[in-house]
Design a protein that fits this description.
Blueprint lengths: L4 E5 L10 H15 L7 E4 L3 E5 L5 H8 L7 E8 L3 H13 L7 E8 L8 H15 L4 E2 L6 E8 L2 E5 L3 E2 L11 E5 L5 H11 L3 E8 L6 H14 L5 E8 L1 H10 L5 H19 L4 E3 L12 H8 L6 E2 L7 H10 L3 H4 L6 H4 L11 H8 L4 H10 L2 E6 L4 H12 L1
Parallel strand pairs: 5-6, 5-7, 10-11, 10-13, 11-12, 13-14
Antiparallel strand pairs: 1-3, 1-4, 2-3, 4-8, 4-9, 7-8, 12-15
GO molecular function: ATP binding; CCA tRNA nucleotidyltransferase activity; tRNA binding; tRNA-uracil-4 sulfurtransferase activity
Enzyme class: transferase
Pathway: Cofactor biosynthesis; thiamine diphosphate biosynthesis
Length: about 400
């Protein structure tokens, strides 16, 4: 059937009291961004739900774009008909006919905003229920947790019918909790951390450190493609490429091998915090999981975090690797993350990094560097790319390589 509207239910937003309007407006903005390729869709965000008037747009494609948007509990495609009992009954039977009803249970859930309609909600429930049972003798009525719920709403502008309820992404609308800078490597953990932060309403900008020629163009393209995987949850994400070669070479030359990782991470954190301040972010997000590697012990975190008072959000800190991998598979970043292109955290990784580095030692070794100058030069050469869903940077790299051959 040709659906005419999609009804969106908010879920967690209903608990926000006086602030609900702020969250709903943010969700409306995110939905508009996600549906930019459907110019005829009209979006009306009301207090209890959102209505998307399709105006001839393909409902299947629109619903695919709605699935990953945080802040949506579920949604239902519906059909608008005239407020005539015959029209409502005929449409209800057509909707049920498109579903495998054999052995299933159902209930009718009617609402009547237009109180001039000839039947009240109870009479409408009984009338439609009787017609459906007669037309589909293998179906049974069940009031609690039925397999199929036929929703009918009689409003001033018409009657709206639906029998599908599609689960949404849940969470809070991205942007409703402010903005944070995601320290995005090319690995498994940081994209998952970004996904989890967005689910709690944080708008992210991805900060990626590149060290050419030690890191390749493919490694950079891979990081951008990981950002592409996160883009559908919000529409677009800013990707900030930080040139890190000079800093890593200086650290390699002046810092003992056992403290290379500690000082490197301190520099990364300083730069990310400077970017956050400039771009009006509120927090830093990373993919650290407690005890997973040398730089993620509590002692290392103390030595590294000393450079900033900015809140650092670690969404995966208490998850083990298998749990993180499961989430990476769910959001389709795992296969991309395991592609063998090294990032700047691995190219200079020492064979025996300190797992319990001392803060005073890290500061001592860092004093051998021109910290302020190195950071200033890196910040001056940042490149910003706007990443959208559906793009592919690794494929472009392969195409350019083929052309060269």
């Amino acid at each position: 059937m040709q659906y005419t509207e999609i009804m969106v239910r908010y879920g967690e937003l209903s608990t926000k009291g006086k602030n609900r309007k702020i969250f709903i407006n943010q969700l409306v903005m995110n939905v508009k961004k996600a549906l930019h390729q459907f110019p005829n869709v009209r979006i009306h965000g009301e207090r209890d739900r959102m209505h998307l008037l399709l105006n001839g747009e393909d409902s299947t494609k629109v619903m695919e774009c709605l699935r990953p948007i945080f802040g949506i509990q579920n949604f239902s495609p519906s059909i608008k008909v005239e407020k005539s009992l015959d029209q409502i009954e005929d449409t209800a039977l057509q909707l049920m006919d498109e579903i495998d009803t054999a052995g299933k249970s159902f209930k009718v859930e009617a609402k009547r905003a237009d109180h001039t309609f000839e039947l009240d909600t109870n009479d409408l429930n009984r009338e439609l229920g009787a017609r459906i049972v007669k037309a589909f003798p293998k179906i049974k009525v069940q009031m609690v947790r039925p397999d199929i719920k036929l929703r009918v709403e009689v409003r001033n502008e018409g009657a709206f019918l639906s029998c599908l309820t599609i689960k949404g992404a849940g969470g809070l609308p991205v942007g409703s909790s402010g903005k944070g800078m995601l320290m995005l490597s090319g690995g498994i953990d940081s994209p998952v951390a970004g996904y989890m932060a967005m689910k709690r309403g944080v708008k992210i900008e991805a900060v990626h450190f590149a060290s050419p020629p030690y890191t390749s163009e493919q490694a950079l393209a891979k990081a951008k493609d990981l950002t592409v995987k996160l883009a559908p949850y919000v529409g677009e994400i800013k990707f900030l490429e930080v040139p890190f070669t000079e800093i890593q070479e200086e650290i390699k030359q002046h810092v003992p091998p056992s403290y290379l990782m500690t000082v490197t991470r301190r520099m990364m954190l300083r730069i990310t915090d400077a970017i956050r301040l400039k771009r009006k972010g509120l927090a830093i997000i990373n993919g650290e999981s407690l005890g997973q590697v040398a730089s993620q012990t509590l002692q290392s975190m103390i030595a590294i975090n000393d450079v900033t008072n900015t809140p650092i959000i670690r969404p995966v800190v208490a998850l083990d690797k298998n749990e993180i991998i499961d989430l990476a598979i769910k959001i389709d970043t795992f296969e991309l993350a395991i592609q063998p292109f090294e990032d700047c955290c691995t190219i200079f990784a020492p064979p025996q990094p300190k797992t319990k580095p001392k803060l005073e030692k890290a500061i001592e070794y860092e004093n051998r560097l021109d910290v302020a100058g190195l950071i200033e030069r890196a910040l001056e050469r940042i490149e910003i790319t706007e990443i959208h869903a559906g793009e592919s940077y690794l494929e472009n790299q392969e195409d350019e390589f083929s052309d060269f051959l």
